[in-house]
Amino acid sequence: MHAIAIPEPGGPEALVWSEVPEPEPGEGEVLVEVVASAVNRADILQRQGFYNPPPGASPYPGLECSGRIAEVGPGVSGWAVGDEVCALLAGGGYAEKVVVPAGQLLPVPKGVDVRHAAALPEVTCTVWSNVFMISHLRPGETLLVHGGSSGIGTMAIQLAKAVGAKVAVTAGTEEKLAHCADLGADVLINYREQDFVAEVKKATDGAGADVILDNMGAKYLDRNVQTLAVNGRLAIIGMQGGIKGELNIAALLGKRAAISATSLRARPLPEKTAIVAAVREHVWPLLDGGHVRPVVDREIPMSDAAAAHRVVEESGHVGKVLLVVE
Length: 326
Known about the structure:
With 326 residues, the chain is of the alpha/beta class. The protein is built from ten helices and 15 strands. The strands form three sheets. Strands 3, 4, 5, 6, 7, 14 and 15 form a seven-stranded mixed sheet that branches. The protein has a six-stranded parallel sheet with strand order 10-9-8-11-12-13, sandwiched between helices. Strands 1-2 form a two-stranded antiparallel ribbon. Helix 2 crosses helix 3, helix 2 packs across helix 8 and helix 5 (196-203) packs parallel to helix 6 (221-227).
């Protein structure tokens, strides 16, 4: 089969469409013939040499995929050859075939094209686990999403609105904010021109955000704490703005607030299985009913993954950039 290998870390040109050995499913695993994968920031970090796969994972990038089951390994029940699926991966999505633990499989939702289903696993699992399982966003509360036009942002808007929350977003252009508004965002903040602390306070009569989903890390830490409401919850899922920041503990104590920080890739299989099961229970009915949808910016041939990485690094996209096996 073919896969995107990274012989040496570097720029997008480091991604090489190569002939590689085909994987074989083991106990509790299935082999998926990949139709599409999606580009995540973690893939870019891996390409640059900063984010190696966890032990035992595929060496190829790709944290999610969609396709059809080609082979079912021993000990697997409930899945059959030919089933259309999408999957959360620890790696290996940039390939024609990938081995997946059965607990990380999801059926392709009704009304969703099998290619576009590749845009779902990482964003649904990230948003549901952080915003709902950890931060317990409730109806009537306010969620602030940084990077509202990203893949994770576009899903967070939709899921928060589906449960009856108010949603504020930050983005860097009016065009991106317009896309967020189309998905249901209530408060639109251009972070290049506006202070998100002031804008969220104004939109909530001074109360602040009950939950913040943050992809920036250090750069926004102090202002995020300022933005939190009493009993607010800050969920950090990225560090695009740096890894070390100063935390005002007095401000955190005064608000009785909480900070969590998570990643999906290196979690043990039982934790991933639990998250995937929760997503199937709570999010998949919304997808099946057409209340929530994947947001896809464009599709690019997987063999030209370098072009897809350039698109994501330039940050001009809205939603997910897909890599399609031709």
